Amino acid sequence: MSKGKILLVDDDPDLVEAMRLVLEGNGYECVHASNGTRALEALPKEKPDVMVLDVMMDDLTEGFHVAYKIRKPEPGFEAFSKMPIIMLTAIGQRTGMKFDLTTDADYLPVEEFIEKPVQPKELLAKVEELLKRSRGGRPAL
Amino acid sequence: MLVIAWGLAAGFFLAAIAAVWVAGRARRGHERLRGEIVRLEEELDRILKGLILAEEAATRILAPGQLSGTVEKIAKEAVELFEVEGVCVLVKPPDGQDEPTGLCWGRVPEGMGDVERPIDPNPGDGFGSILSLPIRLHDSWLGEFRLAEAMDRPLSIREVHVARLLAQLIAIAAQYRIQRKLLERAEEDKSRFILATTHDLRAPVSTIQQLSQVMRDGYAGELSEKGRELAAKIGDRAEQLLALLSDMLDLAREGQGTGRMRDPEPVSLSEVFDAQAEAARAGCEARGITLSVARPDSPLIRLAARGDLENIIGNLFSNAVKYTPRGGKIDASLEDAPGGVVFRVRDSGIGIPKEALPRLFTEYFRASNAKEMARHGTGLGLALVQKLVRKYGGRIRVDSTEGRGSVFEVFLPPT
Predict the structure, then answer these.
(1) Residue B250 or B347, more confident
(2) What is the phi/psi pair of residue A70, to 5°?
(3) Partner-chain residue, chosen from A12, A18, A119, that has the shortest CB–CB distance to B203
(4) Does A25 touch chain B (CB under 8 A)?
(5) What is the domain range of residue A61?
(6) Which of A54, A90, B81, B278 has the most CB atoms around its CB within 10 Å?
(7) Considering the domain boundaries, does residue A140 fall inside one?
(8) Which alpha helices (H) appear in B64-156, and where do they start and end?
């Protein structure tokens, strides 16, 4: 019995494999989508517990666009409106971004940010924390 | 007795005449001298006005887009300056077109109408003398400076000299401007190239770092001790590359003027100072360095991009840690001084060799002893710090003795 199902959304297969090895090695089940459109298609079929979403993918499906669709939620995604989302950002991108979870959590469509390169410990800690929070019946932030 | 009296009277009379004559000569000499001075002053004035004209003309040579207005002004002023009938400034646009463009101004010579209007002083237009001087830069012809005088008045030698000087000045000013423009273009190209390259390099290097870490931690199966060590080395090197890329990216952004200043917000310098000091503390503890910090209670708000202030303070903290040997001491302070805030980091580190000081803020420069102490520096940190400090109208100062330590002091004025 897996500890939870994680949907990894990134266009870099090597990066996805690195995350998959860490998560599977710690008892999680992983599925993968290479862009935002495929991620949205995969949701109803895979019903993941947590989504790890790259901020910007090759086909220019903006990560935030995907996240807002799920959060809003747009028709078809009602079941996932409370699914925790971790957003992956490029190196150095976070300091340049105008938002901050400590102040803007109310309107940001994601629960956590991880800046690349993803540290295994940080990824595991955040996935575990978010799963605990959502399973504890409390609403996601 | 009478004879003696007459003699004396005649003597006085002659003496008086002589005195008047001498005084008159002296006055005339004085007047001539004064006239000469006035003429020299006028000449000097003419040369100074020529300098200003040359500067304007050079601007025209390099900005062919808006030709008519300024060239008309130059031509009009040159007419006044030389007291000639017509002046023509022809300039070759710097973008490779060979046809010179320009404008002439002057009075139409007598007998050919008396309206003041743009003219083209060409032989056969009723002018007596035409002086045509090339504006040359090395071997290239940039334009022409032309004076035209009416039929009954030749150009004086002085006018010819001043005109030649003016043509030379225009060429020198143009050269200066051309070189400055080329330099600016080269800087921009460099920044653009670095931005594009570093941007593309970051993603694969980041993935290398990540894969090596996953390997090292045994997620891909248990490794031998040597295998773990090698995976860790790959990861360290990738991280070092990432640090270099991130420094280069920050610097290139500043060079392009697309730095993060675009989104300034009120930032507390005290908060940034605390956070960076905390980050430095870990490094200090690992190397047995004593770190003491001091700052006022006030938040010291600045309107800035947070990342910029983090870069300034963080870079100076990490340099102090990097270049202070085990057991050393670092004092950092933030001070609310009159007229601005002073951030100071004093370390008991290796110091900076005297000959390295002038180049300390140059991109990619690293002092010889710095290279020995920390192999993996990028040489970009201080260049970036200086750029950022200047962006906020501040100043950075360094005082250092090799082998004894360094003090870096940043002054930031209020926003």
Answers:
(1) B347
(2) -75, -40
(3) A12
(4) yes
(5) 5-132
(6) A54
(7) no
(8) 67-82
